[in-house]
Design a protein that fits this description.
Its main location: secreted. This protein has about 475 residues and is an alpha/beta fold. The protein has 16 helices and 11 strands. The protein has a domain of about 325 residues: Rossmann fold (3-Layer(aba) Sandwich), CATH 3.40.50.1820. Strand 5, helix 5 and strand 6 form a beta-alpha-beta unit. Helix 3 crosses helix 5 and helix 7 packs antiparallel against helix 9. The longest helix has about 45 residues. Bound molecules: 2-acetamido-2-deoxy-beta-D-glucopyranose (NAG) (2 copies). One 2-acetamido-2-deoxy-beta-D-glucopyranose binds next to loops.
């Protein structure tokens, strides 16, 4: 009895600390964004600068023919235009002339993000697909992107993608959808619409952090009754139900297609969402279930690594092994929001009474981490089958890249080193993004000539 009481109060204390740390960080980001906006407006008003306008014109005229590099955000992420002038990729998008930063919703499922991303680029009204939307209880159609950011997108005008965290998995799901011709009215899509995929701390094999935050270890879909994710769930439902328009323009969880606003569902709808009858958390159509080891395995079972696409990944870690123990590799280098999680993940053990997420699972392999993802999960897709990969020590080793292989590098950094705050990463920030953009622009090209219709190595319309 005494022991149970001790455990419970420890758990509650942990929950309280975690909740405070994350709330504080969210508040910090939000107020930074607001302060940045205010100071920008004051500046514009005082100096009436037109620098931005010139920049814009130039980037419009010089870039015809240059394939765009699309930066895909991760969990709690946001695209250009959200949170005022704040940049999820900490301004990396300014390093190249043609970079796009879509907003795909911060807690939406990987599937929904991939659908959104397609229409953002190609144009048209987002179609989540009849079957999926019925199964998940949301509207079939979403936002209308009209012309799209890159309407000429096709096999001969392919795109480079760079994804952070869950964003990397979104790109893989999108590429599979293109290969499967999964967009009604676009029969000509195929995997070669994607020229390269770069993953920064990518969520390929799931993460044990989802269990620490409150996902159930048994199935990887449900949530524990008392957990950080439950608090988050209630907050998100309230936020979407209250539907305060200026706030939602500023930051959105991306659940508009679930119709959770009071204007559409009334008080009844709120109760239905809260008790878990409707909404994304009821049907599991949000991002956390996709990030558990079980969820990733089931996503991965339909995802291929394609022979003509270039793949590169940066796996991050902030732990080291000493005498058989895994511990955080420092104190100051790790973001305060992540420190506790780095420690907890490095000590993580899958509960004995629950069957492990896959055959051959070993706790030790999953202990190296960056505070949000396990390092083992970020190098290349491994579950349920391992995809071709090659470990890279320095960038000079990958001047001549082969498509169809995941080249990966391990970087000493935490999960948010390369996003939001550029100063934190210091010189590493420039090194990493410069090498990503340079690789896209200088080292990665289609080897197969596109203009030999009779000798095409692919049978373009072959039945699958
Ligand atoms: C949400 O609302 C829109 C229009 O307001 C409606 O067309 C759509 O069917 C609704 N979706 C759901 C899942 O209730
Ligand atoms: C079951 C499975 O394939 N799991 C993968 C995830 O990562 C581990 C660690 O290497 C691999 O062994 C597995 O391939």
């Amino acid at each position: 009895m005494m022991k149970l009481w001790m455990v419970t109060s420890l758990e509650l204390a942990e929950l309280f600390v975690s909740a405070m740390v994350h709330l504080l960080y969210a508040f910090y980001i939000f107020s930074t964004a607001v302060a940045g906006d205010i100071s920008k407006n004051v500046n514009d008003y005082l100096f009436k600068s037109n620098v931005d306008v010139n920049d814009y014109d130039q980037s419009q005229s010089n870039v015809e023919g240059l394939p765009p590099i699309v930066l895909v955000h991760g969990i709690f992420g946001f695209g250009k235009g959200r949170l005022g002038g704040l940049s999820y990729f900490a301004g990396a998008e300014k390093k190249d002339e043609r970079v796009l930063v879509p907003d795909l919703g911060s807690l939406t499922s990987i599937y929904d993000r991939a659908r959104e991303l397609f229409y953002y680029l190609k144009g048209g009204r987002v179609d989540f697909g009849e079957e999926h939307s019925e199964a998940c209880g949301h509207s079939r159609f979403g936002r209308d992107y009209r012309k799209g950011q890159y309407p000429e997108w096709d096999e001969d005008h392919p795109i480079h993608f760079v994804g952070h965290s869950a964003g990397a998995q979104v790109i893989r799901v999108l590429q599979q959808m293109l290969a499967d011709k999964a967009f009604e009215g676009f029969d000509e899509t195929n995997e070669n619409w994607v020229l390269s995929v770069t993953s920064l701390s990518g969520a390929f094999n799931g993460t044990t952090r989802t269990y620490l935050d409150g996902m159930r270890t048994e199935d990887g879909i449900g949530m524990k009754p008392i957990s950080l994710l439950q608090l988050c769930r209630i907050g998100v439902i309230m936020y979407d139900w209250l539907d305060i328009s200026w706030l939602k323009t500023y930051y959105s969880f991306g659940f508009d297609h679930f119709n959770m606003s009071w204007k559409k569902t009334g008080l009844r709808g709120l109760v239905d969402c809260l008790v878990g009858n409707t909404g994304p958390f009821a049907t599991g159509d949000w991002v956390l279930p996709d990030l558990t080891i079980q969820g990733s395995t089931s996503l991965n079972s339909n995802l291929q690594t394609f022979p003509n696409t270039y793949y590169f990944s940066y796996a991050t870690k902030r732990t080291r092994r000493i005498m058989g123990m895994t511990i955080p590799s420092g104190v100051l280098g790790i973001h305060p929001m992540l420190f506790l999680r780095v420690f907890q993940m490095s000590q993580w053990r899958f509960p004995q009474d629950v069957s492990p997420p896959y055959k051959g699972y070993r706790d030790e392999e999953w202990q190296e981490n960056d505070g949000a993802m396990n390092t083992i999960s970020m190098t290349h897709p491994r579950l349920p089958v391992e995809h071709p990969s090659r470990f890279i020590r320095s960038d000079s080793e990958c001047q001549t890249l082969q498509p169809g292989i995941w080249y990966y590098k391990i970087v000493e950094a935490d999960h948010i080193t390369f996003i939001v705050n550029r100063e934190r990463a210091g010189v590493q920030f420039d090194l990493i993004y410069d090498s990503i953009f340079q690789r896209c622009r200088k080292h990665v090209f289609r080897k197969i000539p596109q203009t030999l219709p009779n000798q095409s190595p692919r049978a373009p319309r072959s039945p699958r």
